[in-house]
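Moderator note: this is an archived Q&A kept for reference. The question asked for a predicted structure of one protein chain; the sequence and the answer are reproduced below.
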Amino acid sequence: MSNRLFVVGIVLLLMGVQLRVVKSFELNDKASAYISSKLPKKAAPSTTFVSYDPFGNLGRAKEEPPAIRSVTPPRWLGWSFISIGATLVLTNPCFRR
């Protein structure tokens, strides 16, 4: 049991450091599409993509590029992961039998 708590503490500690170092995370296409399908649609300003088509494919509909989403975690989340992880790691010797 104590080894599991130690590993969970190390993982939480490292996740907290990662959340403190990185400002935002950019999701890949698949994750962005999934998040976009689950969140309600906003009334965004309409944008049109105009490009020169030298081959004359004007009748074919253009696909919009997938919107890449960015996730910015709150600053307190990193500190809370660090504090919980450090508590688990430092109190781990108390749980040994």
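Archived answer notes: The first helix runs from residue 2 to 21.
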